[in-house]
User: Which sequence fits this backbone?
């Protein structure tokens, strides 16, 4: 009797379980890896969408001869209009929640506001706000035809390139849609996006290096890779890189081959502002820790030699920071957020300054202090191998 009651109750409970009443099959979707935004000859939005092409167990190997992805080109009066036309070619609905990167041509941002281009990708529930955002030199769609070097799909390849360029070379920055939208809504309104271009000197190899500055929702300036270390330091995004110093003045030899490198393992910066008599002064204190990477003309065996080595490094870093700041001031672009700091300190004063802040930023005085700690001289001691 007990067994019958248990069986009856179990059967009744099965009817109370929920089911997949609105399920969607995988064959109804195509999974997007990356998308590019360009302008057509008619001035419409032209999308190139890169889709992942599943191929069963063969997807684990590149040697099968089966391509892992394909692209579809569509055109519309806006981004969503172009996206919906994908179905007329593919027969499936594009699925955006696995996308890795969004590429926007620099030509688009000369005429269209960035917020207009990104509105769909922030408003729709599928695209993730952590998607990588890149600005490309020239036609963005052409970059999606490049074969990935080591990753299985180009979307993941671009993401890995940007992370490596930021983390190890300090020539790019980790940036995504959410961060860019926050920057555009800040008081200064200047946003930064990594720059993707082809290195024609090395066989059209794709590079992610440098940063595009967006002001008033449009492209304003391109910061070259040589100035990115200073940029990352001032914006608290520095992870690691090398500092190159010259051997000018050593034995009268000023050849370009005599260059030394210092590997930075940790870098931090403290930026403070002071207001006095309607003038702004910015104090920058940078601390870097690292080890000698290459020695060509400097020995660091004694305390005195190490101090000379440290001084050369500190002067070089200070020079790079000043070069970058002067670049920003000449363009009247506050990309390091000094205006945001003034707003946090004195909102009423900022409201009076906001309209002409670009001109005021050009006159800001910067005081820079750099402290370098040399942890070791590497496995070959403190003497160059040439000596």
Assistant:
């Amino acid at each position: 009797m007990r067994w019958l009651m248990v069986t009856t109750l179990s059967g009744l409970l099965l009817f109370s379980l929920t089911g997949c009443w609105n399920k969607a099959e995988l064959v109804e979707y195509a999974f997007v890896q990356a998308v590019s935004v360009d302008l057509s000859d008619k001035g419409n939005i032209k999308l190139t969408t890169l889709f992942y092409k599943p191929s069963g167990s063969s997807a684990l190997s590149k040697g099968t001869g089966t391509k892992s992805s394909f692209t579809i080109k569509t055109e519309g009066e806006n981004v969503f209009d172009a996206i919906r036309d994908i179905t007329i070619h593919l027969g499936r609905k594009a699925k955006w929640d696995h996308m890795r990167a969004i590429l926007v041509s620099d030509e688009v941002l000369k005429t269209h506001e960035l917020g207009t281009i990104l509105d769909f990708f922030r408003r729709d529930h599928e695209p993730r706000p952590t998607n990588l955002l890149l600005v490309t030199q020239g036609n963005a769609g052409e970059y999606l035809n490049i074969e990935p070097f080591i990753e299985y799909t180009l979307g993941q390849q671009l993401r890995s390139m940007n992370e490596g360029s930021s983390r190890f070379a300090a020539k790019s920055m980790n940036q995504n849609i959410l961060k860019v939208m926050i920057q555009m809504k800040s008081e200064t309104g200047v946003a930064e996006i990594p720059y993707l271009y082809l290195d024609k000197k090395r066989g059209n190899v794709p590079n992610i290096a440098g940063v595009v500055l967006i002001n008033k929702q449009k492209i304003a300036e391109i910061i070259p890779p040589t100035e990115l270390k200073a940029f990352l330091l001032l914006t608290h995004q520095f992870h690691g890189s090398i500092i190159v110093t010259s051997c000018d003045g050593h034995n009268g030899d000023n050849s370009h081959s005599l260059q030394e490198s210092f590997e930075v393992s940790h870098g931090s910066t403290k930026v403070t502002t002071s207001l006095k008599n309607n003038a702004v002064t910015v104090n920058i204190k940078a601390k870097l820790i690292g080890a000698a990477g290459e020695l060509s003309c400097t020995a660091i065996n004694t305390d005195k030699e190490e101090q000379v080595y440290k001084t050369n490094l500190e002067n070089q870093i200070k020079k790079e920071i000043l070069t970058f700041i002067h670049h920003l001031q000449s363009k009247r672009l506050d990309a390091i957020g000094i205006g945001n700091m003034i707003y946090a300190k004195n909102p009423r004063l900022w409201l009076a300054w906001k309209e002409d802040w670009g001109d005021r930023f050009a006159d800001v005085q910067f005081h820079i202090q750099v402290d370098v700690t040399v942890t070791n001289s590497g496995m070959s001691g403190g003497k160059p191998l040439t000596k």
Residues 37 and 104 are 5 Å apart (CA to CA). The radius of gyration is 27 Å. The longest strand covers residues 259-276. Residues 303-331 form the longest helix (29 residues).
